[in-house]
């Protein structure tokens, strides 16, 4: 028993002894915001040459922790020790001078400058390289490794999201990053590119770099990381070595009793009746003029979830945007609820019961400067000259409870919520809007595993009980299989397969996605 207890203790307790490979150590870090203890007495150390993942449910304190290391927040208490020296990190410049660099999910680059100019700009300020030629070489070298082509002389606005993230990572390397803080920097990358980035991160660590990686995907963390630290409600649960840990142990550390709710079993089937959405021979252009959707036809019925499986960048996003009337249609027709909406507006769609969860929620889905109430104020039944604030407030309390949105109050500006809680605000609003149809792109991205499953259950429940239709594109095949009644596969802008979900075979879908 004693031996077992010791084993448990070493498994769950964090190391406190300084060891020679320690590059960064924090001791007793606490951070409070009004109404929230974001971090409570955290002591932790990071070793040279390791990938160290930080996991925890939404609002656990992960971002706050790395923002402290990057000088965006100052801790209320505690100490930071870098390479054996106590340091004060009062700004990102202090962090950069110590070799600590953060890349987050929103690229911080200037659209009108070229890739090389952006990078030189960042470096010059801190007195490092100034030679554009060197920068060019490095961009080519790193982009080759990561397998994402990127021209140093392209203006940044022309780049895809993946390429922009790559620019950030190249900049971090050129700034001499010894410790790379990746705050969900890879979360929004397409799966294939994510894998290449992970390989690259591994190489960086093998060459002596240290990576602090925030992700919600336990399998990804277990694949790439050496160590995993779990935070829960601002407290340190423990650090484990990936070699010794199992997925279930990590889930238990992250969610406690809630880990029992995590299951990937298929949700109960819908009850499809009449068509609510018919897409007929649709052709849509992408951002750079090419035909992103090429002759797609599909039907979504009331009481049915149609899941679109596909590698990102195969036209799913443009298809959904066209349905929402956010993108011009070259050719084809969209019939919604019996009406030809090909020439209607987004406003028409929203006012007539269509909810929409876009890609990059914090950018396109909510206004982060406004509070939760104001963000809910764009719901169709509140869009009038005078908003009924008391009714809106009552609704906000209901949604905060149902979706377990972690916030001090409905009047809290959305930018003060954690990433996952921002996503919950969006999903709760759009599911309220969707009285007839939900259109969603990766509806659970950025949500922790337990919450993601809960959101899928809520969506399926609406489909079953209220008979709404749902068209959901997701890069997460587990999600597609769990929620869909019908699975559609998109590849190169075309629909290359349609399967009743109970007959769909994963290998066949995967093959169609990449063939
Ligand atoms: N600037 C701020 N003002 C007020 N509260 C904040 C601020 N930044 C973070 N918080 C709160 O601190 C808590 C921890 O947030 P944090 O963003 O660190 O969580 P997280 O673990 O990164 O979550 P997620 O997985 O959802 O991104 C949350 O309750 C959040 O609302």
From TrEMBL:
InterPro entries: AAA+_ATPase, ABC_carbohydrate_import_ATPase, ABC_transporter-like_ATP-bd, ABC_transporter-like_CS, P-loop_NTPase. Keywords: ATP-binding, Nucleotide-binding, Repeat, Transport. Pfam families: ABC_tran. One of its GO terms (molecular function) is ATP hydrolysis activity. It comes from the Archaea. Residues 24-258, 277-515 form the ABC transporter domain. SUPFAM superfamilies: P-loop containing nucleoside triphosphate hydrolases (SSF52540). PANTHER family: CARBOHYDRATE TRANSPORT ATP-BINDING PROTEIN MG119-RELATED (PTHR43790), GALACTOFURANOSE TRANSPORTER ATP-BINDING PROTEIN YTFR (PTHR43790:SF9). This is ABC transporter related protein.
